[in-house]
Design a protein that fits this description.
By secondary structure, the chain is α/β, with parallel strands linked by helices. It contains 15 helices and 14 strands. A hairpin with a 5-residue loop joins strand 13 and strand 14.
Amino acid sequence: MGESLFSQYINKRLSVYDFQNELKRLIRLYNEAKNTYLLLYAVDFEKASRIQGLNISISMGDYQIIHEMLRQLNLPKIDFYLETPGGSGEAAEEIVKFLHNKFETVDFLIAGEAKSAGTLMAMSADEIYMTDSGSLGPIDAQVRIGRSIVSAFDYVNWIDDRRREVEKGLPLNAVDATMLAQISPGEYMSVFHAQEFARDKLKEWLPKYKFKHWKETETRKIPVDESFKEQRAEEIADKMINHATWRTHGKSLKIADLEEIGLRINRIEENNSLCDIVYRIKTVIKVLFGSSTLYKIFFTADDHITQSAYSQNPTADNRQQIQTPIAESTVICPRCGKQHPIYVKFGKIPNELEKQMKTRGKVFPIDNKLQCDCGITIDLTGLRNQLENQLGRKIID
């Protein structure tokens, strides 16, 4: 048996900086193989489970970063590699709107997990490309009720079932009556709208993007018109949002599951050269997360922004871990094209981490001026403001 990709990369003993360069190299190979421009967005699920308070969810800050990284591109097509547990539906919507307004074609690439709001984003694709290891998930909104996070679908349906019982003249038991008495109309409507948001987006995006070139059904060759597309989108939305079907919000929906509910998926394994690139990208991401403090990364072939975390005053039971982000980026000289890796700090960091960061780039200049070897001075004031706004903290010098 051949050596696994994990073993190949681990045995090379590369630095974090080397792994970042390897990721950019693989992205360039992907772009050439598929004639596109790939943006990679991924988070470290494992760090989030270990470090208390580490937020890896999709946020409006992520939208701002993605917007800044892509806004100056003048290309017809974008591919979006996505690994996320989900997050803000509103942020997901803003990202989708920006991508489709900016590019003629938007494809999503799923090689790991893209759940909840991540699944919602993938459903806006013109085409979805997945590996056999990739998975999406149900899109039933998760809402906080008291001290618990519950499925909006379950919550709304339980109340609707009780209402129908009352309308039929059936008496409520004491437990149901007590629970209903604690629910306000405002709370119910808030949960209801959270549930309908995802349904509405699927009903809008699937006909508009995924089904836009669909002319006839695959087996029976029935002509497909707009009403047919809308009906199919509604059927898929109902299935994706139905918590009773999947039982758990974390359910992994593979290619076969998605095709069973009516979605056509492009299987990466059918293209050997592209498959090798994608699995290498996935492997480098995992090794990069495992060998560094990085927990959220944004990469293209030309640029990258990363966010890091470490623990202060760690204890055996992990209760005192505190997140302190470090952001990394690459500034490209507009005159000569040289790339300048830089990092910014948002709090005091250990000496060892400081040494590690200095091997990967320069600290953000105090005066916001970066001097390139070609003689030009690059003003980083805009970048400083962008990073501070995105992360909600001031850079320390």
